[in-house]
Amino acid sequence: MGGAATPAKTAGARIGVIAGVGVALSLAVGGVAAWLSLDRAGPAPSETAAPAPSPAASPGPSPADQYLLVGNLVDFSGVSAGIGRVYGQAKIDSANWINENGGINGRLIDLDTVEFSFLVPRAIAAYKKWRVQGALAVQGWGTPDTETLVEKITEDQIPYFSASYAASLTDPMGKGQGAGRAAPYNFFYGPTYSDGCRGLVQWAADDWKAKGETRPAKYVHMGDNHPYPNAPKKACKAYASELGFEVLPAIRFALVPEDNTAPCERLRDSGAEYAYLANTGSAVIRLLQDCRAADVETQFMANVWGYDETVMKGAGEAADGVVWVMGAATWGDAAPGMYTVREISKMSDPGGRKYRAVHYMRAVCSMFYLKEAMEWADKHGGLSGPNIKNAMYQKTDWVPAGLEGVCPPATWTAEDHRGVTRVLIYRGHVTGPTDADVPTLIETGTIALEHVQSIDIPRRPEWLGQ
Questions:
Q1: What are phi and psi of 391, to 5 degrees?
Q2: Considering only CA atoms, which of 184, 186, 262 is closest in space to residue 222?
Q3: What is the distance between the alpha carbons of residues 94 and 26, in angstroms, rounded to a whole number?
Q4: Nearest to 323 by CA among 306, 304, 300
Q5: What is d(CA 338, CA 192) in angstroms, rounded to the nearest whole number?
Q6: Matching CATH topology for 1-44+64-191+329-420 and 193-328+421-463?
Q7: Alpha-carbon distance 128 to 394, whole Å?
Q8: What does the DSSP 8-state code read for residue 72?
Q9: pTM
Q10: H or E segment at 161?
Q11: Residue 178 pLDDT more than 70?
Q12: What's the burial of 37, exposed, middle or buried (CB within 10 Å: 0-12/13-18/19+)?
């Protein structure tokens, strides 16, 4: 797709040929309807529902009824492709593994993957297609596309599990002080961008105190002028001020990697001790390299998408010492649930040789929360958007079965969609040349991921939605 590696499998690919053809035809018809009539909420005029047969005459479920349509939005070729390929492949692998291990109470997920290159109009078109086709839920992607779709998601009552962690998506009742709108069908797994940044600022305050400093430390937000890096800016600056930091004017650097000499020199001249990096990893690689060349001594702190093993390899020793937000276990962890994750990984890597970056595990968690919500809904009134949403409120400190130690516990309520408020702070270590591949760098200790602190962010009412 757009030059990216094509996933090895698609969900439901091992179902019989006749069933596969039937589903393909039905999806094709639905796709045409979507493109010809994007704003229609109901079926095309020719799609008249037939009278339901009496129970005695019911022939039982058709092969197509065994498929449960879930939309899957991925970026394999756009500005966020570096992380998108990892996260997107994990969603596909998870759907395949679920299908080969009992599905959703015996029925199969039909994961319809659309590569949208991080372009909002393509995301909107994909969503409208899925709506017409009767998708039960969507596994989405970024902040601009997810925020654009909030009203339609709510109107259509389709649960939407994004990889955007914008706090504006966490207010199901619209009563918070954030975006000022309700987002009852939006879910995501992990701390909000705002809470992640608050956790990093809390770490920075502790770090500054440990150094014995008494004057206020200087803090600066760095990122592009874009919905994703802007999402936590206001909230985190406010918390930094609350903790006694001197908050400096934000410094812009582009989401698309480019020469960052000017922003790095501005950062150096500002005297900032701590800088929050709000862009994705591909942009962070170049920034770290350019700031190292400019003799910047600032402590960098990165958001959950801004740092990983790929950044460590790409930036080399310029990536040493960065602290960032981690959302789940790492590939090398010995948690009991990593057995399941490794089996899931084999769906596209049968030999089990591929190393999976940190984002892979978070995507697996997201898919398995949806899996268990669908299973609950199926047994409590039937599979529908409202029932799947209601399923998300049935457990506290929820960890999907088989993923113990991989997914930190989550709790969603009808009033608060901040599912995870514990922020895992990690530090990256790079001790030498990074020419080798990531598995070798990990094995030799050239790069290492160190868990340095876990910070519980309070569920302050005024922070809901922001």
A1: -60, -30
A2: 262
A3: 24
A4: 300
A5: 24
A6: yes
A7: 29
A8: E
A9: 0.86
A10: strand 160-161
A11: no
A12: middle
